[in-house]
């Protein structure tokens, strides 16, 4: 593991902590666990992840195993984006990835086009709508127009809805009217394209970066990360600065530089001064905060050029690191880098989960981070000390002349991986001896090996691939039991690079992040690997052990290729997020498996994984569902809408 002291070179890293920079925590009053400046009321969902801890948990119990089967659609809300798209057919497609919040008796949600709406939580009627016009600038991500949510803050009668838009504006809206708050920034807006950036841009940044996730508000500071294009768009890509703004005035309070400048901690992990000319390492995923301590946890992504690091020798802090900063000052308290010198696009795609656990009789305020690689890392969230040992193990090295990969990578000893890390012949499909032999013949066409096998000039298999493992829907956790619930997918892809790191075109190309890549398929129309291809894993964070694992749906089990083998559920590759309540776990199926994904929301027994109920939906779930109580009824709301599919919210409830 990486040393706690300032590095003496890129590979001096064998101590327990990873770059911890610990200060005494200042004395502070306990703030709301929901975030936003007001205590969380019973029945509310005031933050994107349920609370600032990112638990995706609600203590509501009106819906339980005895009546979940009776859930029915209570109302449907159509996104106003559909009307904008109909009037402007040239607009790029988007995805409705948002999860609403419910606070002070109203639902608030953002749309793929960054419109903001207030909604009646009982009827689904629109109360007000604000359109910042972000869509007029066109796509601000490689996937088109997407956005995940808003934040809420209240002090007395001053209640605000905060959105950070895809065209780089931080906007404060009056929660009662939807109108910009004049005292915030300039007429309700702060320019995220210029203010507080460590490396000013010489051009309009809208087609370079924007914000897609909901801000986090902690200690009256609005903290904002940003999405930056995965593929280099200009010669010097912008660095992934994280910034904190005063929630009342919009004034900049601090900037945390994820790509260090000269003199900053971590600068010498970018050898040859490469930090001066490289960017990304941004925080595009949602992040979490501990209101009691005032600490914020930032899940970082990979530096510029996801699959080649010849232009950035060294470990490249703070790329691919979980970074703990002080909400009031932006000062780093500790960090841990999950991938040194990333060339696999193994960025941290989701918010870490904060939960208190008991390990060996000792109570620990913990933070758990799930990953694309299938690993779960667990730390003391105050100190950065790993709860279970994390070992630096040797990994395969790059064969490309210009690339110098890290000789080791961190492996957690507990919990066990929730996906198979790396390629092994034992994973090959083997429904019959003949099929197994054909799978072996296919595998022989590729370079393959354990996790962290670098891409080479021969097509190289990566599993889980960059869209696999845990993704942006993240995990949920039950704070009463310390059990973590992780939806994940088992993806397998390959890519070849030339000696300069350029991607070599091949068959079955996809533009999903990687550019020229191949989806690896198996014999006779079958996948190359054995099922499941999507799963849910329950992990007891008190012991580090898996409680249960089950496929997340039937998937292609009834397809012509698989049906003869009577396999049962093989799992869906559709990505989505979980909802945890006092009584049940709810997980749907995402839209990324269009032939076989089911349009359902399933209720699971949290202790066993048994399916309690399956509720039909008009579409696939995309963002994590949420729940709230209003008028004596508990509602569960699912967002859906993938590209050309209708964008909407669907609320479920028991019959009135």
UniProtKB/TrEMBL annotation:
Cofactor(s) the protein requires to work: pyrroloquinoline quinone
Instruction: List, alphabetically, the SUPFAM superfamilies matched.
Output: Quinoprotein alcohol dehydrogenase-like
**Signal peptide positions on this chain:** 1-31
Looking at the Swiss-Prot or TrEMBL record, what is one Pfam family this protein matches?
Answer: PQQ
Q: Which UniProt keywords apply?
A: Oxidoreductase, Signal
Instruction: Please report the stretch or stretches of sequence annotated as the Pyrrolo-quinoline quinone repeat domain.
Output: 45-636
Comp. bias (Basic and acidic residues): 395-404
Entries under Gene3D superfamilies matching the protein: Quinoprotein alcohol dehydrogenase-like superfamily
Using the UniProt annotation, give all residue ranges assigned to the region (Disordered).
395-417
Q: Where are the transmembrane segments?
A: none
Q: Which residues form a coiled coil?
A: none
- So what family is this one in? Belongs to the bacterial PQQ dehydrogenase family.
Q: What is this protein called?
A: Pyrroloquinoline quinone-dependent dehydrogenase
